[in-house]
Amino acid sequence: MATGTGKTLVSAAFIKLFLRTGNASRVLFLVDRLELERKAEK
Questions:
Q1: Phi, psi of 24 (to 5 degrees)
Q2: What is the pTM of this model?
Q3: CA separation, residue 35 to residues 3, 8, 20, 30 (Å)
Q4: Domain ranges of the chain
C-alpha cells in the first residue's frame, strides 16, 4: 500500500478484531517509528 493509505489503522483494526474474537491472545506489533506506535495505540 502507498504512503498515507491507512496501513497502520487497518492493521490495528485487524488486531482489535483478533483479540475480541479470541483468535489471538497476544499480538506483537513492530514499528520503525514512534509516531506509528502512538497512532496504532489510539
A1: -145, 140
A2: 0.64
A3: 14, 10, 25, 12
A4: 7-41
